Amino acid sequence: MKNSLSTLLALCIFATPAWAITVTTPANNAQVTSPFNLVASTDTCDSKPAVSMGYSIDSGPTTIVATSFSAHVNAGQGAHLLHVKCWGKGVHEDEILNISVVPAALVTVKSPTAGETVSSPFVLSATAALCSSEPVSAMGYSLDSSSNNMIVKTQSLQATVMAAAGEHTLHVKSWSASSSCDTDVAITVASKTAAKPTFSPASGTFESAQSVRLSDATTGATIYYTTNGTAPSTSSTKYSGAFSVGASAAIEAVAVAPGFANSGVAKEVYVIAPQSTGPVIPADAIASTDLQTLGTWHFNHDAGTPGSAVGKSGMVTTPSRSGSARQFVSSYTAAGGEIYSVSYADDTAATNFVYDGWVWIAAGSSISNLEMDSNQVTANGNTVIYAFQCSGYSQTWEYSGAGAKWVSSTEPCNPSKWETDTWHHVQISYSRDGSGNVTYHSVWLDGAEQVIEATVPSSFALGWKVGVVQTQFQIDGLGASGSSTVYLDNLTISRW
Known about the structure:
Helix content: under 10%
Strand content: over 45%
CATH topology of the largest domain: Jelly Rolls
Number of helices: 1
Number of strands: 46
Number of domains: 4
CATH class of the largest domain: Mainly Beta
CATH architecture of the largest domain: Sandwich
Radius of gyration: 38 Å
Shape: elongated
């Protein structure tokens, strides 16, 4: 009985069908791109030696292959049945896999775009993640029929390409473990670059809206421009005639012409500051003018700020309004502040002051606070501090209060929001009484008045020389480290 049972079990095992097809890739229910890589093999087919294999998509024709094969298979987008087959003597097997063909993620060329006219050298920027459903391991490019100019073992390519003037085909390539993918981009390399557009009027501060005209020296050029400070492109507003700039704005423009590479970006900044009455200054007031030109300015780190600061200062002719502007260059760590100051008069009697100056903040400057002060030592030996600043921390105009602490007004100000590389007009009106209480009346920024009307005690026994009248211009850094370049021109302080 035992031998009979063993024999029966052996017969049952022998009679079980042997589905021996192994499909290495793709997996069942895989998403692939076309063409995709099919790898399969078998030794037996329905328990008999396999003599051949094959594959087909849906009910399409069968491709006959060897019993171990790798093939690139084309298929339209969508869901498909992939049949992987084998044949032996008198037997046949068919393993069916569900696959979904998705759009091919081949080479994406970010620049230059197809049909674009560029100058030489131009920047090639491209990426690729998959090639024939396999991860990309390298990328490269060639121009026309030349050999590969560059190969990088990454999924992104950034290159500066030299090319002669004329029409070219740029071949951008990617490679996976078993395939290569190629995207062709037709470009034209111009022999010349279009001239930058010109503006009329040029940058400046104006009391009213300006009619701005653009022109270009390149024949047949089309100008595109933006009014929000962003870089212009052919998708930007097309210039068709003079347009009005009624509020402060940075205008940027680019010229595009057939057979020419696009011009560089031209930029002009317009500050629209309607004329205002400004501070009322009596005719008999004493006006100390062009204080920025005094040769006795000195500077030091404000120990009341954190971190450290180092500064230097000198006279420049550009940028300037008067031909003689003072430049302040500061570098800092941990939001340190640098004080720039100068004494300009001897006066214990004056009780009213108007600070009037023009400030230019260079692009790239990192500033948290911009402080514009006056100080006066009165007859009793106390120093009255008229401290006023545009604070990036509170984003308001601030003034010195009791205990020399900063007090925030309700009027907004933030130096990081000021338009860079242009002149801004700052006027501050303040006064004191006989007890050293200071009233901050108003501040005007580019002609727009902001009313403060705050009175605070601001008299301190600092031991300074009686009669000294001084102004301070302080620049505080923003963040862990950085620098700033600021210019001051036409600084006039009136007193009475």
